[in-house]
Amino acid sequence: MSKVQLGIVAGLIDEIGIVKIINNKLGIDVREKISAGTVVKSILINGLGFVSRPLYLFSQFFQDKAIEKLLGKRIKPDYLNDDKIGRVMDELYKYGLNDIFIEVVLEVIKKFKIDLKYSHLDSTSFHLDGEYKREEDKEKQEEEKIIKERPIFIKKGYSRDHRPDLKQCVLDLITSQDGDIPLFVRVGDGNESDKAVFGKVLVEFKKQIKFDSIMVCDSALYGQENLQLIQHLKWITRVPMTIKKAKELVQNIEVEEVKDEDKEKRSDLNLESYTWKEEIVTYGGIKQTWLIVLSEKRQKSDLEKLEKQLSQEEKKSQKFLKEIQSEEFEHPQAARYKLKAINKKLRLLEIKEVELIETYSKKKEKIYKMISLIIKKEKIYKMISLIIKKDEEISRKTKEAGKFILATNLVEENKLEASEILITYKNQQSTERGFRFLKDPLFFTDSFFVEKPERIETMLFLMSLCLLIYNLGQRELRNCLKRVKKGINNQVGKVTLRPTLRWIFQCFQGIHYVILNGVKQIVNLTEERRFILSLLPASCQRYYL
Q1: Residue 119 phi, psi (nearest 5)
Q2: Burial class (CB in 10 A: 0-12, 13-18, 19+), 276
Q3: Can you tell me the distance from the alpha carbon of 241 to that of 27, in angstroms, rounded to the nearest whole number?
Q4: C-beta separation of 383 from 329 below 8 A
Q5: How far is 257 from 61, CA to CA, in rounded Å?
Q6: Tell me, what's the pLDDT at 544?
Q7: pLDDT tens digit string along 415-430?
Q8: What does the pLDDT read at residue 52?
Q9: How far is it, in rounded angstroms, from Cα 231 to Cα 87?
Q10: Cβ neighbours around 122 below 10 Å, total
Q11: Which DSSP helix (H) or strand (E) runs through 235?
Q12: Which residues of the chain, if any, have pLDDT below 50?
């Protein structure tokens, strides 16, 4: 008896045709008991089993599964040993992970009619344990293209996981707005900068995926060099507030009041808390539309943070004030140097010198009296000071509260509605959802055990395939529920048209594949589960019906 909720995963892999694509790329050796494509299928099933088993327990994962039903006749768990998996991973890397992934993506786009009007780019980091020593050819590294022929460098860098003490690698991910389908993945060095590579990533993506997609990215993309690099692409991005023009606009421009006839429309788009104003700007030699946006919710949050920061600085500055007024300085310069160092620690307040008093140390006076010596007393200096607010800085932060700027090179005849620009950028969470999936502790990637950078890249390639399969299955299920206008119960018993695929996996855990007296049958396939199967691709249904 074996649990067969993994039939959904196996069916999605079959529907995409991943096994066939892998075997066509790597070839089939008739002497092998199991093909490379089938090994990859087994890894993906393991990865989406949400049991947190690493690959060295791989064959154990299939001990209680209907492995012949999932992978094919005469396939045994011991075929999936460490050596076989390692060889297949090395063959995948040698052939070219990017080429294989792109072919899978193109098949998915064609077969499932993925809408590519908008694509989203972002990056994250994965921290790694162990030693990854390789000699770095800096000159070669600077000259090479974005799709590297060398393995990555595992090293310390800016950590999104807040683990700067560990070495890491970086994953760049482009997803579709339609269903969060991964379209392009690239693994980079641990110390790689988003600003340095995002423009190159988009250019390479457009070479591989020849669709007229509008690229959406965060402010790491926005720089003169990148804008020149992607000037022939369509894009929407956020403008960093380090740019002088952006600072001026946020400080001085007033966003437009919402007209009564527009309020209902914005409410329907879930934009009732946003106001904005458009400006035509030329930056980096590129004419663009800047959308200066004010979010009421964010403004409230920013002002609360500002008030909290001001309160904390008041407490801190009182402590500094007491400290500097009680200290004795040998020279006026020493007092002013100490004051300058203190003020560097404050952002909204300032301790200002009122008067520098010349006096004598009381301790020294006592010593002189005790030994009855007539010696000229040494002068010391004490500072009288007070705390003042930096009104200009507080005013600047108050004006900036809740505001941000979005930019696009879609102007004139290609111009987008302001509401569409804003909604599209808000969907930048598409890639963030993908990163949360990949870093889930129940996923098989919660720790990397492979020793070579090449294996790390291959593992991230396989993880990204898992994400593609999961999001595709979820997209198909939700689209079908929307078409039939009928929902299913979620975890708390409420009807939903947007269930997660993980919840569907849980719903199928009560199903068993039983062989009784030589007769194979599926047990506990309820009407609700049959209904769910009817919404999934035909390849999924074949594992159950």
Answers
A1: -130, 145
A2: buried
A3: 52
A4: yes
A5: 60
A6: 86
A7: 999 999 999 999 998 8
A8: 58
A9: 42
A10: 22
A11: strand 234-238
A12: 1-2, 135-144, 373-374, 445-447
- Per-residue model confidence (pLDDT) at position 536: 94
Q: Where are the alpha helices (DSSP H) in 401-487?
A: 418-426, 429-438, 453-484
Which DSSP string corresponds to 236-279? EEEPPTTSHHHHHHHHH--PPPPPHHHHHHHHHTT-TTEEEEEE
- Which of these, 20, 23, 21, 64, lies nearest to 46 by C-alpha position? 64
Q: What is the largest CA-CA distance in the chain?
A: 115
CA distance 24 to 224: 42
Residue type at 138 in one-letter notation: K
- Please tell me the pTM assigned to this model: 0.86
One-letter amino acid at 7 equals: G
Residue whose structure tokens are 């008896």:
1
Helix (H, G, I), strand (E, B) or coil at 425: helix
User: Smallest Cα–Cα separation from 348: which of 306, 403, 319, 299?
Assistant: 306
Strands 214-217 and 118-128: parallel
**Of 181, 182, 180, which is closest to residue 172 (Cα–Cα)?**
182
Angle at 168 between CA 165 and CA 170, to 5 degrees: 140
Residue at 101: amino acid letter: F
Composition of the chain by helix, strand, coil, percent to 5: 50, 20, 30
